[in-house]
Amino acid sequence: MNHKLILNNISKHISLDKEEEKFFISLLESRKVKRKEFLLQTGDICRHSAFVTDGCMRAYTIDENGFEHILQFAPPDWWIADMYSLITQKPGNLFIEAMEESEMLLLPKEEQEKLYVGIPKFERFFRIITENSLVSNRQRVMDNLSLTAKQRYEKFCSAYPTVFNTIPQKHIAAYIGVTPEFLSKLKAERERQFEI
Q: Residue 10 sits in a domain of what CATH number?
């Protein structure tokens, strides 16, 4: 597997020499998943951070009424994990599922710990992506409380520019908190704007 994408992702925050790159790559496991296959299900203990290299994953919960609440999409060049479970090593409450045939590089938790010892600057890298994730999640809560559905849809299109036309509408609707029918109206309105 070509590791260029993950190395570019890391180089946004820290610099590695060739030996450090080699050591990091040696800790990764490559995984392919079919469409609708789960990387993780609620009740599982999350043992890896996953970096998507191809396809698209989604993380979601299902409430007691059977409604899905999507927390994250992960197209190529995105990391995904059940952070609560990964950090605590307790059973998680997320489903992480492939939306299409996908490929990823997995970094097992125990290998991540080795990485911190072998290349301490990786602690900085994972601190930055964890902080970014925390800020993003907090902003999303604030957006859900204060923005209109149209504004939430526009933010979604900005956050996921490579996939907003390929993700099924029902999943986008679940992510921004509207019905699929209402999302169709928002999408049509947005398309009309771009035609002008």
A: 2.60.120.10
- pLDDT digit string, tens, across residues 100-148: 999 999 999 999 999 999 999 999 999 999 999 899 889 988 998 899 9
**Across the chain, how many H-helices and E-strands are there?**
8, 8
Per residue in 149-166, pLDDT tens?
999 988 988 888 888 778
- Distance of alpha carbon 170 from alpha carbon 122, whole angstroms: 37
Report helix, strand or coil for 6: helix
Any domain includes 178:
no
Burial state string for 159-185 with b = 16 or more CB within 10 A and e = fewer than 16: ebeebbeebeeebbbbbbebeeeebee
The answer to whether residue 149 is domain-embedded is no
Residue 112 CB coordination number (10 Å): 16
Token look-up 């149209």 returns 150
pTM above 0.70, yes or no: yes
Q: Is residue 52 part of a domain?
A: yes
What is the pLDDT at residue 49? 96
Mention every residue, 6+ apart, whose C-beta is less than 8 A from residue 31: 39, 50, 103, 104, 105, 106
What tokens does 43 get?
A: 């009740």
How confident is the model over 23-47, as pLDDT tens digits? Answer: 999 999 999 999 999 999 999 999 9
Q: How far apart are CA 165 and CA 128, in angstroms?
A: 29
